[in-house]
């Protein structure tokens, strides 16, 4: 049995703040490693804001060396300009991940809430509460950092069964996603 | 007088096709270097599509070594999902550019048309026609490649005067943009 932990980097992209969380997973145990927020200067040119996101994610990967990444799928806003900006921030974050050849998985907010709280309609505070509980944190992390940890936990929780099946040869990885044969 | 050419990489981001064009600029002369299209597999997971964009731009920068980049500002679509996808593709392209520390400038479609054709309401064919004329091309490049060349030309045309002022010390670069002192 494999007892080496898998390190997961979770990212919650936003146009102003990108949350991140790093956890270690061994079997059904989860351990907190790090979390935080990447804040972009709101009045800076777009290229500069993109650079802030990319360089911070580069630094996080260099410091913590995750093996997999999980990224929250963003809410499509009714405001087209806001949606475009959010898309650009998310695209930059994904670019920084794939440039390091990190297998990258996506989860919707619904999937995150279902995995972490057990129901898709959970409030943001419930997600934060469960993140604190599951990782035995001594304090509550910032909302965006908690979302980064939540998406990392989601990836871990949804793939316990899959990882076991993989080891038994019942699954294959295709295009970076698990698929049942 | 500086007679060494400046090499500019122009990028026209799209959710399915990202056009690029590379030109050399010496004084008021423009020379074609390269152009083409980066096509992303439409049914692949987003991370894979982002990887295609980032890796192709990486290869283009390695092959042609541009000194500056110009990126077209995209049209905000009425369809939020399409806008988000376009934003993500554009964010990935910008990430690839800033990761190479390329000074990156943005131009709207209106600015491109005004610079290349002389009027903001020019048809797409007129832009293509002027790109062929200005770079003395023997054939017409694909639409997206022509748009990449057009945004590179726009950056060259709009900065002739600025570049001259820069050499005289009348301008400074702040946050990647030219500013009058």
From TrEMBL, chains A, B:
Q: Which reaction does it catalyse?
A: Endonucleolytic cleavage at a junction such as a reciprocal single-stranded crossover between two homologous DNA duplexes (Holliday junction)
GO-annotated biological processes = DNA recombination; DNA repair
* Annotated Pfam families: RuvC
Per the record's keyword annotation, is Cytoplasm included, yes or no? yes
The record's listing under PROSITE patterns reads: RUVC
Question: What EC designation does it have?
Answer: 3.1.21.10
Q: Which residues bind Mg(2+) 1?
A: 12, 144
> Could you say which cofactors this protein requires?
Mg(2+)
Give UniProt keywords alphabetically. Answer: Cytoplasm, DNA damage, DNA recombination, DNA repair, DNA-binding, Endonuclease, Hydrolase, Magnesium, Metal-binding, Nuclease
Q: Which GO terms describe its cellular component?
A: cytoplasm; Holliday junction resolvase complex
List of catalytic residues: 12, 72, 144
Instruction: Please name the GO terms that the record assigns under molecular function.
Output: crossover junction DNA endonuclease activity; DNA binding; magnesium ion binding
Which amino acids does the record list as binding Mg(2+) 2?
A: 72
Q: What is the purpose of this protein? A: The RuvA-RuvB-RuvC complex processes Holliday junction (HJ) DNA during genetic recombination and DNA repair. Endonuclease that resolves HJ intermediates. Cleaves cruciform DNA by making single-stranded nicks across the HJ at symmetrical positions within the homologous arms, yielding a 5'-phosphate and a 3'-hydroxyl group; requires a central core of homology in the junction. The consensus cleavage sequence is 5'-(A/T)TT(C/G)-3'. Cleavage occurs on the 3'-side of the TT dinucleotide at the point of strand exchange.
Recorded family membership: Belongs to the RuvC family.
Full protein name: Crossover junction endodeoxyribonuclease RuvC
Native organism: Neisseria dentiae
What high-level taxonomic lineage is stated for the organism?
A: Bacteria, Pseudomonadati, Pseudomonadota, Betaproteobacteria, Neisseriales
